[in-house]
Each structure stands twice: as C-alpha cells, then as structure tokens.
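$ fold --in a.seq
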Amino acid sequence: MEDLTGKQFGAYEIVAPLGEGGMGAVYKAYQPAMERFVAVKVLSRTLAESNEFTNRFQREAIMLAQLQHPHILPVFDYGQKDGYSYIVMPFLQNGTLAELLQARRRTLSEIHQIMTQIGGALGYAHARGMIHRDVKPSNVLIDEQGNCLLTDFGLARMIQASDRLTSAGAIMGTPSYMSPEQGKGDSTDGRSDLYSLGVIFYEMLTGQVPYQDPLPMMVVIKHIRDPLPSARELAPELTDAIERVVIKSLAKEPAERYQTAEDFVQAVKKAMQVNLPGRAVSKTMDSVYDRLMKGKSTPNDAASAKGKDDTSPSSDEQTFISPRPSKDIP
C-alpha cells in the first residue's frame, strides 16, 4: 500500500503512518477544525473494487458511529477518497491489552475489571445486532485512565464483503481467538465473540492461549477438534470455580457456552468472589506500560491507535485462511 502521508482525506490531513497490515494501514492525522489529532484507518484499495464491499462499508460505518458505550472506541467519521475507504477514530497513545499481557500476568482483580469492561462493550453491541468477529487483545485499546476500549467493530464483516475474498471461500479472523464455528465457516452470532473473550480470559489466567501451532490453519483445527488444555495445569493456584467458568466459556458448541455477555461476566465475578473498588487497570500498570504512558518508544507504540496490524506476537495476528477447513473434521 502506498504511503499516504501528506494526502488530504476529507477534513483530515494525513501526518504520519502508524502501521500497516494486509488489509490496509493506520495513520496519524490532523483535523484543523477541531485542532486535534485523530487515527485514520485506511482500507486497501483492492477491497473497494467490490460493489458489495462499498455498500456494506457505508452501512456498517453508520452503525458503528451510533455505538455509544464507555468501553467501545467511538467512530468520529468515515469516507471514501481516491478508491480508499477510511474510518476516523480517536488517537490514543497508551497501548493495548496485548502489551499488558506481554508484560506480566494480571491479578484476579485486574482480570475481573478487564472482563467486565470488554464484556459490557460486547453485551451492548450484541443487543444492537452488532457482532465483532475479531475480539482479541490487540483490538482492546487502553485510555489515559487505564480503561479498556474495544475497537474495530464490524471491520471483519466489511472486509468479508469483498468479492475477491468471498469468491475464494476465505474466512477471516485471528486463529488463536477464533471460535470453532467461525473456523468452519459456519454462521456466527454473539456467542462466537464470547468464545473469543473466553480465550482472552484463559490467556490472562495462564499466561498463554489454549491452542498453539506454527501453522495458523492447525490452530483453527485445534479450536474445532482438540480438547481444552487444563487451565489449572498451567496455573495451579486457580480454583475449581474459575476453571469451570473457563471450560464453559470455551465449549465447542455455542449452545453449551454462556449465552450472553452479562451471564459470562457475572459468572466470572462469582467464581473470583471479588469486590472491586472501581480502580482502573492503570493503577497497577507494569514497567512496560509505564514507558508507554510516559511516551517512550517501544516496538508496539503504533498499536495504540490501530487495534490490529500491529507488531504483537503471532498468536494475535490477523490471518486470512482459504479455503475453509473441511466441515467433516470430527
């Protein structure tokens, strides 16, 4: 993708690139009328070759702009310029949940708060018919108060509207966090997002995702086929109650999982038996997060404004997989 620095996208002056991935790039931009910097996510020009994508992009962008929740990153604006589709969001510089998890395992109090905030965002969106389809730590941004903001709602659905992808039978998502039904290319609903949240829950408790393999397709197949590795074997201090929540959240069949985000969050609270004083995650941040807050450079600084297309470990990279795995996998 060409460097768009110096270009004008509507009311936004592109200042500098923040990062790039297979489906587009994210730029820091300036909005003179509001005297503020923003993040502009520019999608690949090849996507706009599809009329279905263009139509769906407009519909989804309008829906995204209507999402108003304290733990969903708001959409300021959207548009199309010279064959590019773009979305405008707040410019944040405080890192992502992926970076927090790289630094150290979270305490139970922190985990409960993170689950409450992300779960609340998903519950709000699901009640309005919006499914995320790519819930993962690098799509959770951290604001200046240390709170979580879920980003990139609807982006997977927009991109999947591209004729180039749908004709190839591709599935889109991040293998380490992908639900079995998503990996098989079946229809999905909010319970698929809750499975992805369950993977994040597992990762925060144990320090690693449940299924790993050098080949992305093998990770997808493990989610579909393999038994869930015991969280308590990796973290013996966990209680039976917590492990039961983990097992239910990562059930292969959607009907066997928590049916709503509220049910999931309440189960986490009950299992952990915590009563939080309302502290933000930033109150217990580690040295890596401290460096981010002070503005010192780290390899992942750009991730704060883009959600994905970052330099996170391979478990949190977005991957397009084509063709779909066989639905006959046991």
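$ fold --in b.seq
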Amino acid sequence: MVQPLSVYGPVKMAITVDDLFLWPDVAHQNGFTPGSCSASLIRAFAANGVSDVYAFSASFALDNDPGLKSVLDDWCAAGHHVGGHTHYHTSLNWLDAKRYIQDIDASHVLIEPWVAKAPSRYFRFAMDMLGDTRSKTEAVMTHLAQTGFMHAPISYWFYDTQFVFPYDRAVRLGSEEDAAWLRDKFVETAVSCLRNQVAASERNLGRCPVHISLIHNSAIAADTYDRVLAAYAEAGVEFVTLEEAMRDPANLIVAPGANPHFRNLTQRWAEVLGVEVEGTPPSVLDELDAIAPIEGWDSVTLFSKALAGMARATGAEPVLADLAP
C-alpha cells in the first residue's frame, strides 16, 4: 500500500506542460518531434482522466517553421489550452524589464489565436524565474495586468529536464538497458519529489495547497508520463484544472523579495520561511551524465548551447549558474 502524500487527504494538483518546442538551438532528437511527443502526452492525459492542460511554450520555433502551428492546433483540438511563455525563453535575470516585456509581447502576438480559445489568459515566466530584482518582477506583473494575463506559477517539479539529454543519448546509442533505467528513475523521482515538496508546502502554510506541476514535452516524457500520472493517482493525487489551482491564494501571492535562483514557488516560500525541502534537488541527478555518454551531449554543453541561442536572439547575458538545481 502506498503511503499517502498528505495527512490532509488527497492532494489536488493541476498538470501543466512547458516547452512544446524545447529550446533555441536544442531540438527533439532520434525521430521524436514536438508533434509526436505532444501526441503521446495527450494520450497519457486521456488515459488518466487529466483535462484542460495548459501548455506554456516559447514561440521562437514558429519563426523558422510555421508548420509547427499544427502542434498548437492539435493541442487545442484535444481540449487543452495554450498560455504565454515569452518568445525566446530567456530568464528575466538576464534582461532588463523593458526587453523582457518586448519578448513577451512578440510571443503573445503570435500565439493569440490559440490563447483566445482558452478559458483563461495565463502567462508563465521563462524557467519560472521571476527576476533578480523586485523592480523587474513588479514591472512585468504590471504589464501582465495591463494586457489581461495572469501569472501561472509552478509549485512542484522533479527536474525532468535533467533526464532529457541522457535519454536522448541512450536512444541514440540503442542502449535499452540505460533507457529503461532512466524511465524507471523518471517515475520514481517524480513521486519522491512530489512527496517532499508537498510536505514542505504544508510546513510553509500549515495546510496542503492546491499544487501546480510541470512536465516538458520531451522524448522521455512521451515514453513515460502515462506511468507518472498513474503513480501520482496511486499516491493520492486528485487532478484538477489550472483554473481551480489558481483559486488557491497560495498560487496567487508572490513570495516576498527577489530570488534569482532556479526555484519553484514552494522552494521560494521555503527559503523565505526557513523551511527545508528534503530531497530537492534529488540525488539521482548526480548520476545522469554518466548514463550512455556521448561527447558533446552532456547537460552542461547542451544547456549552454540553448542559452547561447537565447542570448543571440535577445542580447541577454545568460549565467548558467543561475539554473543550478
């Protein structure tokens, strides 16, 4: 019997997806595509009773391949929704507020046909990073209010992007043993991180808030997320819409101060309140770059390549250390 996640009963959680097109200069590999991966996620949602999932994607890919608009069409046709996520996926840390807002607006012009179909107009900061100064955060939040968008945070994640490149390598090398190990660890890590972050959120607030989760549109998610959703349900998750999650004040109120680090909402509140978030980041991350190694395909090299693409497009000065788990 699986130990319940919370003493308060079932944990309500909205599922959200980031980065249907992944990141600048770092695309899907090994025959996986944005469309094939998102189709797999759509099937996983249907099989596990998950509806009205918002996808937050940087829209840069539509510049070079307008045919990718079909990915957004198919997403909405399946009953899911689209939100804003900037055009080039650059952290607010690395730009001034004016340039970041320009990047938001460039994206929103492109994705408006799909955003208009959604019941709510949501925006998610790139990397869920709200900026290294409070003045930047406030400037962007003001612009969102003026343009009719609501900030949709993330309160739980399990660092699924750290599995993306190891899985690509394992598939490229035809190492099914490594790929199977990664899929199993993906599921285990999702549940263990959820357990630890739910516990931290309860210590933060004295109650169990409605959580907002994150998954990326990657190959390993395409091959594994059906199992993750089933494991969530077995552990006591009740899937709800993002609209229901956003009715919880815990998801509406921005944690005090500025936090320039790669932290979700639960972690930001924990740092303000002096609460430990156990097992976050999970220790398995230290093992991943040793799996199915290929020269030049390690996480540092490929994430640095993505950041270089963001910098080239926006004039940003990325700092890889800001993204440390």
